[in-house]
Structures are given as structure tokens and as C-alpha cells.
Amino acid sequence: MDITIALSKDELEETGMTEDELEVDIIERLDSASPDLPGYNVWIEVERKV
Questions:
Q1: How confident is the model at residue 49 (pLDDT cuts 50, 70, 90)?
Q2: Residue 30 CB neighbour total at 10 angstroms
Q3: pTM greater than 0.85
């Protein structure tokens, strides 16, 4: 299953995690919620202000 999560830089900062930490956290939560389902591909897209 492919999952893309789009959030702003401010929203990411509110989590207190890096992009990598957020990705791992989400995958762990999905795996524990649905252990019988196959793996997940999670992409984090952070809006960058230029």
C-alpha cells in the first residue's frame, strides 16, 4: 500500500520529529494496527517555502 503524507514545514515542526522519524513512526503505527496486511510505502512531502 502506498501512502503519501503532505504537510507544511510548520506542521512537521509541531510533531517534534524529523521527516525520517515521522516516516518510521507512521509505519510502526500502521504495522501495529494492521499486522496481517502486507508492508507499506510511506512518503513524506514537506512543503518548502522559498
A1: low
A2: 16
A3: no
